[in-house]
Design a protein that fits this description.
19% strand; 2 domains; N-terminal domain of MutM-like DNA repair proteins; Helicase, Ruva Protein, domain 3; 4-stranded antiparallel beta sheet; Fpg/Nei family DNA glycosylase
């Protein structure tokens, strides 16, 4: 599932391509991927310009003229492809937005969605999300206080979007590895020094992943060399049976709380 670094990569790559441009065509291949009737969706975006693109947690927000916003959540298996009609992906396209000669194809939206809202409504719906890891107002002290009040498994808290925004299965494991702490640790057992390590591990891991295009391997456009660049750099996620880059112990997969998790039993404690 795309997480904060993947959605941030999309945001950065799409801004120079569609910001300020007008939607010249709309095709809906799966009505369940949108939240209003097809005719209403098309009428709301056709001939309307994209004012800008922002990100909130794992959501991408396409801010349109007329105080409307398209809220995208790719969920599991979703992706976007930018290209000409000749470069249309060889996959089922749920939503297609045309910008002159180019198209933005939304694929894999079996669980994901592209919903149309008024700006105020979208803001209200997103208020339930937890703080953004890179928000300057979200300090080390805030992080320690937030997790220090929780109970349960560390990984469960890290991936809970009402606690923290944008972290999922992949980066929760990578953060725990960087901090040298097992993801199945109980929150109530963590010392303040360990919480501080987790805070800085969160910032450094997400920053590194975003700068290398995240771990998803579906290029946004032909010639895209950024998207997916972090995948070979993952230290533990999906690396079961490989030697740890830090101590050489074989990476183990441990499933708990209905989640798969990867860690090094040798140098994570």
């Amino acid at each position: 599932m795309p997480e904060l670094p993947e959605m941030e990569t999309y945001r950065q790559l799409l801004i120079p391509r569609i910001a300020g441009k007008m939607v010249t065509g709309v095709q809906i291949g799966r009505e369940k991927s949108i939240n209003v009737p097809v005719e209403e969706f098309s009428a709301a975006v056709l001939g309307v310009r994209v004012r800008g693109i922002s990100r909130r947690a794992k959501h991408l927000l396409f801010h349109m003229e007329q105080n409307r916003v398209l809220v995208l959540h790719l969920m599991l298996g979703g992706a976007m492809v930018w290209g000409t009609p000749e470069e249309r992906p060889d996959r089922t396209v749920q939503v297609e937005l045309a910008f002159g000669e180019h198209r933005l194809y939304f694929i894999g939206l079996r669980l994901g969605y592209l919903h149309l809202y008024q700006e105020e409504e979208a803001s209200r719906l997103l208020q339930k999300l937890g703080p953004e890891p890179f928000d300057p107002a979200f300090t080390e002290s805030n992080f320690c206080s937030l997790l220090g009040k929780k109970r349960g498994y560390l990984k469960t808290a890290l991936v809970d979007q009402s606690v923290l925004s944008g972290i999922g299965n992949c980066y929760s494991d990578e953060i725990c590895f960087t901090a040298g702490i097992l993801p199945q640790r109980r929150l109530e057992s963590l010392a303040e020094e360990e919480l501080v390590r987790l805070f800085h591990a969160m910032r450094s891991t997400l920053s590194e992943a975003a700068s290398h295009g995240g771990y998803m391997d579906v290029p946004l456009f032909q010639g895209d060399t950024l998207t997916g660049g972090f995948d070979p750099m993952c230290r533990v996620y999906d690396r079961e049976g490989e030697p740890c880059v830090r101590c050489g112990t074989l990476i183990a997969r441990v499933d708990f709380a209905s989640k798969k998790s990867f860690s090094c039993p040798g140098c994570q404690h």
